Amino acid sequence: MPLTEVKEPKHKTTKFAGPTYNSQKEFEQRMKARAKTNRRNEKLLMTPQYSNPLYFGHKKPPKRHSAKKMKFCQECGIRH
Fold first, then answer.
1. Got the DSSP string for the chain?
2. d(C-alpha 3, C-alpha 20), whole Å
3. How much is the pTM?
4. What is the domain count for the chain?
């Protein structure tokens, strides 16, 4: 008569109960902070430095010089 071995499961299976209350609160706080930074960035993009193509990435629009006084700009790569 062979001995019967009792096989136990290798891993215990647990059911996932869902997110905890603290993790849900942290997630909401992160989403609120992200929405706030997005609103701030959109507001910043409305300033003429970013919305007006004449600025070429400068803080102030570059001056228009005559052809013999023009210099190459390292910031935007254009002569002005």
1. -PPPPPPPPSS---------HHHHHHHHHHHHHHHHHHHHHHHHHTSHHHH-GGGTT-SSPPP---TTT--B-TTTS-B-
2. 46
3. 0.49
4. 1
List pLDDT tens digits, range 23-74. Answer: 889 999 999 999 999 999 999 888 888 788 778 878 888 888 999 999 998 8
Q: What is the pLDDT of residues 15-25, one digit of tens each?
A: 777 778 888 89
Contact 80, 74 (CB under 8 A): no
Residue 32 CA neighbour count, 13 Å, CB half: 6
Residue 53 maps to a domain: yes
In a domain, 26, yes or no: yes
Structural domain contains residue 8: no
Q: Which range of residues forms the domain containing residue 39?
A: 21-80
In a domain, 13, yes or no: no
